[in-house]
TrEMBL record:
Quaternary data: Heterotrimer of RecB, RecC and RecD. All subunits contribute to DNA-binding.
InterPro entries registered for this protein in UniProt: AAA+_ATPase, Coronavir_polyprotein_1ab, P-loop_NTPase, RecD, UvrD-like_helicase_C
One MF annotation (Gene Ontology) recorded for this entry: 5'-3' DNA helicase activity
Recorded family membership: Belongs to the RecD family.
The protein, known as: RecBCD enzyme subunit RecD
Length: 571
């Protein structure tokens, strides 16, 4: 029963072709038939495996006759004993592993929710943590700091710029003061880049706060985890040789408080592993935007947890609603998309004036026009000036975040790869770059694999600049501030970054964002979460490149993954 053992799973590639799906379905179907299963079960198993690739942890409840037939199969159980497949009481069909993971997560969450050690917080301490604050704007942040005390599970959710990281910092200071973080604090995120950003923001905010807090807070400020950026994989000490996590019940994570940021990217298997690896008395704080895209792997754990806790009015959830972004004109745009409200979106786009535009891009010719217009703006200022030996690459790197094209798809004529090729071709022409020269000043790339030695992470964006002597180097912002330059040949795997997928943009912010959706309204990538994730990356301006039908399709489709976690969490 080899398929019972392939865990933990490496993250799946962003796009999975139909060929791979067919091969997987056929392989599993063959396995079922060769182990005495029926043709019906073979087909079901194949469907469940393909559904898992798309993120579902189970097939949606089956019709009564199908349930009856499957219950008589000896390869199918009810989940109480290990069997390759599970049919639950509601008729959901599972691969064993996903059923077990849902059950384990729900049980661990239940245990953590009930184990509360009451821990009060006096208003003076709270006020000290929000110097010069205004409860009308930061009331929910204060509530989070209040409510986290003594809990073993806490969830903080909110849209972009609502102050999640700012609040995490204050929660950690409070927990340190309570002595609850005495066994140490670990902060992590699903991706290396997000982990690095988290630590960087915590460090900056801690320094800002240091100037305002009374001196007796120095020990708490000094013990904040502002040095190590860990991915969840590293926090769990993943061992490639054993294909297993080293951290688990027998060797738990040595921390009294574990914070995981960008938790919308956590899949079901990762959350189970994390919960198993915590000390029973440790506090887990999950932080993220529950309305963002679901993880690449199966499940939608943050969305499910938030839905259940919110419906119950549970104190271990706080949703931050106030946006602290300087420019709030795009807030109604994001809210309309979050709610899937087309009429509200039209109003919000109109009210945003020149900050928002909808371009009805349906055919390749219309797309080519938009790409030309976009590239003209990028090309206008010319390639970046050579960097003097004493100069800093930081201003040029910061300028990169001014404009970003985000694509729903990677492949095909409307995908990020094609957009990058078109933009690079036009920039080369405009800047007279010789055809045989791969690298040129102004080339923008994104790292696609973590390189811990070089401290470059999947998702890091770099810019090629010429030195005084004409030598080309690729520069990256460093976590400590400043920039680090690499010879182009020394970079880990990378690709052009003028256009990136919406998936890759999670956790980043840009000034002006253009979002390209596929023109086929039936395309399954289109969802409310995809559009929300893309548009909410923008701080000042957005453009949507899509026919109205694709936009409407995206708005009308809340991405609901099939599975039974919500029900188990409610039980
Ligand atoms: N209570 C507050 N008072 C004043 N400014 C605040 C407050 N909370 C957050 N901010 C400011 O709002 C901005 C966003 O805060 P923060 O980075 O904590 O938000 P976030 O929700 O983590 O954002 P992101 O969407 O980037 O993850 C920062 O500039 C921060 O200083």
């Amino acid at each position: 029963m080899s398929h019972l053992r392939y865990e933990p799973r490496p993250p799946l590639a962003e796009t999975e072709g139909p060929l791979r799906e067919r091969m997987l379905a056929r392989a599993l179907a063959r396995w079922v038939l060769s182990h005495g299963g029926s043709a019906r079960l073979a087909e079901m198993a194949g469907r469940a495996a393909v559904a898992e690739l798309a993120g579902d942890t189970a097939l949606a409840p089956l019709a009564d006759d199908a349930r009856e037939a499957l219950r008589s199969e000896f390869l199918v159980g009810d989940g109480n004993q290990p069997t390759p497949f599970v049919l639950d009481a509601q008729g959901r069909f599972y691969l064993w592993r996903n059923h077990r993971d849902e059950g384990d997560v729900a049980a661990a969450v239940r245990a953590r929710r009930t184990a509360v050690v009451p821990s009060g917080l006096d208003e003076a301490t709270l006020a000290a943590l929000f110097p010069g604050g205004d409860p009308a704007r930061d009331g929910e942040q204060r509530q989070a700091v209040r409510a986290v005390g003594g809990r073993r599970l806490f969830v903080l959710t909110g849209g972009p710029g609502t102050g999640k990281t700012t609040t995490v910092l204050r929660m950690l200071l409070r927990l340190q003061r309570d002595g609850l973080a005495g066994q140490g604090v670990a902060v992590a995120a699903p991706t290396g880049k997000a982990a690095q950003r988290l630590v960087q923001s915590l460090r900056q905010e801690a320094e800002r706060l240091r100037a305002h807090l009374p001196p007796d807070w120095q020990p708490e400020l000094d013990s904040l985890p502002t040095a190590d950026a860990l991915t969840v994989h590293r926090l769990l000490a993943y061992s490639p040789t054993r294909n297993a996590y080293t951290r688990g019940p027998d060797s738990p994570i040595e921390a009294g408080v574990v914070v995981v940021d960008e938790a919308s990217m956590l899949d079901l298997a990762q959350l189970r592993a994390l919960l198993r690896a915590l000390r029973p008395e440790a506090a887990l704080v999950l932080v993220g935007d529950a309305d963002q895209l679901n993880p690449v792997g199966a499940g939608s754990v943050l969305m499910d947890l938030v839905a259940v806790l919110e419906a119950q009015g549970a104190p271990e959830l706080v949703r931050l609603r106030h946006s602290f972004r300087a420019d709030t004109r795009l807030v109604p745009v994001n809210e309309a998309v979050r709610a899937g409200d087309g009429a509200a979106l039209a109003t919000a786009l109109a009210a945003a004036g020149e900050r928002a535009a909808l371009h009805a891009v349906e055919a390749p010719a219309a797309l080519a026009r938009e790409v030309r217009r976009w590239t003209d703006t990028l090309a206008e200022a010319g390639p970046p000036a050579p960097l003097a030996a004493s100069g800093s690459a930081t201003p040029a790197l910061r300028a990169l975040a001014a404009r970003q094209l985000l694509c729903a798809l990677r492949d095909g004529p409307f995908g990020a790869d094609a957009m990058n090729a078109a933009i690079e071709r036009q920039l080369r022409q405009r800047w007279n770059v010789p055809a045989d020269q791969t690298w040129f000043a102004g080339r923008m790339v994104m790292v696609t694999r973590n390189d811990y030695g070089a401290r470059l992470f999947n998702g890091d964006v770099g810019l090629c600049l010429a030195g005084d002597d004409g030598t080309l180097q690729v520069w990256f912002e460093s976590a400590e501030g400043g920039a680090r330059g690499f010879a182009p040949g020394a970079l880990p795997a990378h690709e052009p970054a003028w256009a990136i997928t919406v998936h890759k943009s999670q956790g980043s912010e840009y000034g002006h964002v253009a979002v390209l959706l596929p023109p086929d309204p039936e395309h399954r990538i289109l969802s409310r979460q995809l559009l929300y994730t893309a548009l909410s990356r923008a701080k000042h301006a957005v453009e949507i490149w899509a026919p109205r039908a694709s936009l409407e399709a995206a708005l009308s489709r809340p991405l609901q993954r099939a599975g039974g976690l919500v029900e188990k969490l409610r039980a």
